[in-house]
Amino acid sequence: MPKLIKNDAVSSDSWQRALPDSDQLAKGHFPTLAQWQAATETLPTVQLQPGDEVVTLVEALDTLELIAVDFPVFTDGRGFSYARELRQRGYRGELRATGEFMPDQVHYLRRCGFDAFQPADASRIEEYLRQLRVFSEHYQASVDEPLPLFRRRDSESQLA
């Protein structure tokens, strides 16, 4: 069973990365966008691959429970943009990064909107978890904290 980080803890999950070269939906694997679109019933999960169009999912964002974004290589950063766009378009369900990303990228993945992480190399899962806790504060605004630090401090001083 694949290991992942969800709710800041290590857990297991039965979902596995999609098999993008297959036309058929494989049991236990996320459906690719093409498989999701071709399905005759409503599927609650989908996996985006680099090159997929996020706009394809816009009308279904309220029905999707989990969107996985695959990172086939750690140098492909399109998934960061996918996460930001999905969150800005109102997606509130689980957004999971899957695949080949590095431990030092998980903090930035979270800043873009991911809330679950399923790395291909589960042997280093504790290092991935540790990297999520490296920074306690952020100066910049982001998807996970829309106000920059100086605005948050202004709000706090007005409350005092």
Strand segment tally: 6
CATH topology term: TIM Barrel
Main beta-sheet annotation: 6 strands, mixed
- What is the approximate shape? globular
CATH architecture: Alpha-Beta Barrel
What's the gyration radius in Å?
Answer: 17 Å
Structural summary, described in words:
The protein has 160 residues and is α/β, with parallel strands linked by helices. It has a single domain, classed as TIM Barrel (Alpha-Beta Barrel), CATH 3.20.20. The chain contains five helices and six strands; from the N terminus they run ββαββαβαβαα. It has helices spanning 33-38, 78-88, 106-112, 125-131, 149-159, and strands spanning 3-6, 9-12, 45-48, 66-71, 94-99, 116-119. Strands 2-1-6-5-4-3 form a six-stranded mixed sheet. Helix 2 links the parallel strand 4 and strand 5. It is globular. It starts with a strand and ends with a helix.
Reconstruct the topology from this structure:
Elements (H helix, E strand, L loop, with lengths): L2 E4 L2 E4 L20 H6 L6 E4 L17 E6 L6 H11 L5 E6 L6 H7 L3 E4 L5 H7 L17 H11 L1
Parallel strand pairs: 3-4, 4-5, 5-6
Antiparallel strand pairs: 1-2, 1-6
List keywords for this structure.
160 residues, alpha/beta, TIM Barrel, 6-stranded mixed β-sheet, 6 strands
